[in-house]
Design goal:
The chain is built from eight helices and 17 strands. By secondary structure, the chain is α+β, with helices and mostly antiparallel strands. The two termini are 24 Å apart. The mean pLDDT is 97. It binds ligand PPE. Ligand PPE binds next to helix 6 and strand 14.
Length: 309
């Protein structure tokens, strides 16, 4: 759905609430030329107690951490950004939405060195449905292993959510879609399974969960961390520093993606090889339903993960 079709009218930028159409930047903005932006994506869920932002604090912490390798100074503190976000959701009367904070080097001069380019920051919120298609959550998706490898953490900090990194995600994802798949799986430089273009990945085998470790050039996903905790609390053994080879994808009992946008999305086929029974597996289903029970606040547990609007 395009923004034109949405009922949204406000963006917070550099300390002020602006009309949606006035949140503009100059074409010579540093971040546009060199990918020097850092961003977040969080979901706010509709609950009985009103809209609840899921793991907002962790998203905010990661935003500040992503700024570090680029020596980007964000002059707006935790509290200000939280207040701005809550107010943004409230003003637009959004019941559930996706929240996108972004900070970037702005306009003053060009050249790779950001010099005295100011750091700009904005937060937008809009309704965002299922990330990988209507039926994805129930039926699962077909994916392909991309011919593009992920940049290694020795080439670019993969644990920082940097705008420039996403050209690699675009290449992998669009290659998959051109070939009729919903999404890609991206291997790291060493040829091991890293993650999706915008998702972390989990493998289920013999009732245990495996997910690539942080040394595999992945983003330290907040949904990944959520699923690890939920699964352990359900009694599962979770190997969260796993090394997964490409071949192990085919022999998995179940596979699924996690992400703020993708939530918990089952994978039913990889490169046309059927995974398990070719449908959402029982472990994935249990974890997915637990995930939605928690984020929609149909339980009192994990209350510390929520910021209520
Ligand atoms: N890996 C990558 C590369 C990634 O972009 C994401 C989030 C994740 C893992 C999962 O992280 P987390 O959201 O903290 O669980 N991708 C975001 C951007 C999606 C987009 O298309 O834009 C997201 O899910 O918000």
């Amino acid at each position: 759905m395009s923004f034109d079709e949405m009922d949204v009218d406000t963006i917070w930028m550099d300390g002020e609430f602006l009309d949606w159409d006035d949140a503009q930047i100059h074409v010579l903005t540093h971040g546009l030329h060199y990918g020097t932006g850092i961003f977040e994506g969080a979901r706010c869920y509709e609950t009985e107690r009103g809209p609840a932002i899921f793991r907002w604090e962790e998203h905010l912490d990661r935003l500040y951490e992503s700024a570090k390798p680029y020596e980007m100074e964000i002059d707006h503190g935790h509290e200000e950004l939280t207040e701005a976000t809550v107010e943004l959701v409230r003003r637009q009367d959004l019941a559930s939405c996706y929240i996108r904070p972004i900070a970037f080097y702005g306009y003053r001069s060009l050249g790779v060195s950001p010099g005295d380019c100011p750091t700009r920051i904005a937060i937008a919120a809009w309704p965002w449905g299922t990330y990988l298609g209507e039926e994805a959550l129930e039926e699962g998706i077909d994916v392909m292993v991309s011919s593009w490898r992920k940049h290694s953490s020795s080439q670019i900090p993969t644990n920082a959510k940097t705008t420039g990194l996403y050209v690699n995600s675009l290449l992998a994802g669009e290659e998959a879609r051109r070939n009729g798949y919903a999404e890609a799986i991206v291997l790291n430089k060493e040829g091991q399974v890293a993650e999706g273009p915008g998702e972390n990945i989990f493998l289920v085998r013999d009732g245990e969960l495996f997910t690539p470790g942080l040394s595999q050039s992945i983003l330290d996903g907040i949904t990944r961390d959520t699923v690890i905790q939920l699964a352990r609390d359900l009694g599962y053994t979770v190997h969260d520093q796993a090394t997964i080879s490409r071949g192990e994808l085919n022999t998995a009992d179940e596979l699924f993606f996690t992400g703020s946008a993708a939530e918990v999305t089952p994978i039913r086929r990889v490169d046309n090889v059927t995974i398990g029974d070719g449908e959402r597996g029982p472990v994935t289903e249990e974890i997915q339903s637990r995930f939605f029970e928690v984020v929609e606040r149909r339980t009192d547990e994990y209350e510390e993960w929520f910021t209520y609007v």
